[in-house]
């Protein structure tokens, strides 16, 4: 029977596990979506959301690349078919000039084949370069991360200033408290000395009265 696209994908994922290429990206996207649904914190949810966007971008890039390769192959097939028809035409319908025309067409075909090889080589180099670029974040994303880090650094700086201000306030309050305690201690000592002096004076007066 004919299998649907979903059944084919499901069977390939079951056989291949995490898979490679598009299969692996689809698996990662499903896992990221499940983790995003079950995320316990906003930070974890934002991370899984960014991961899903990155995987979707990779899938879109892969799909676009596949379509480009498909279109190029179609054009190459049409070109080769045209070349084949031209060769048949020159070989069978124009026998008087078939040999000369065939050599000329072969020479032209060789040039076209060389050009096709150069195009194919360039495409392979572009694919390799695209893979390298894909592993590096784009400029916009980097600027966003730098801006977020700058805001976080500024926030930490404000927190540091507030903590330092509180410490300075507590230091001053502690100094005032020590000064108050020292003054109270001095007052108590003076009161104690005054009390001792008064008692000594009363004792002396009582002694004089008895004489």
Automatic annotation (TrEMBL):
InterPro entries: THOC7/Mft1 (IPR008501)
Nucleus is among the record's keywords: yes
Major localization class: nucleus
Domain of life: Eukaryota
Family: Belongs to the THOC7 family.
Xref: PANTHER family: MAINTENANCE OF KILLER 16 MAK16 PROTEIN-RELATED (PTHR23405), THO COMPLEX SUBUNIT 7 HOMOLOG (PTHR23405:SF5)
Functional description taken from the UniProt entry: Component of the THO subcomplex of the TREX complex which is thought to couple mRNA transcription, processing and nuclear export, and which specifically associates with spliced mRNA and not with unspliced pre-mRNA. Required for efficient export of polyadenylated RNA. Plays a key structural role in the oligomerization of the THO-DDX39B complex.
Protein name: THOC7 protein
Organism: Tyrannus savana (Fork-tailed flycatcher)
């Amino acid at each position: 029977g004919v299998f649907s696209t979903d059944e084919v994908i499901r069977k390939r994922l079951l056989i291949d596990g995490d898979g490679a290429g598009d299969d692996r990206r689809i698996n990662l996207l499903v896992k990221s979506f499940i983790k995003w649904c079950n995320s316990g914190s906003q930070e974890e949810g934002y991370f899984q959301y960014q991961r899903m966007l990155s995987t979707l971008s990779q899938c879109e890039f892969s799909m676009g690349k596949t379509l480009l390769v498909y279109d190029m192959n179609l054009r190459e097939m049409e070109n080769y078919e045209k070349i084949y028809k031209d060769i048949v035409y020159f070989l069978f319908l124009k026998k008087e000039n078939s040999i000369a025309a065939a050599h000329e067409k072969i020479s032209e075909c060789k040039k076209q084949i060389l050009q096709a090889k150069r195009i194919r080589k360039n495409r392979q180099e572009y694919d390799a370069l695209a893979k390298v670029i894909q592993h590096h974040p784009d400029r916009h994303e980097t600027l966003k991360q730098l801006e977020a880090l700058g805001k976080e650094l500024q926030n930490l700086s404000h927190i540091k200033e507030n903590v330092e201000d509180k410490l300075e306030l507590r230091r001053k309050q502690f100094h005032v408290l020590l000064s108050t305690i020292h003054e109270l201690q001095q007052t108590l000592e003076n009161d104690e000395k005054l009390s001792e002096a008064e008692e000594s004076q009363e004792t002396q007066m009582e002694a004089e009265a008895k004489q």
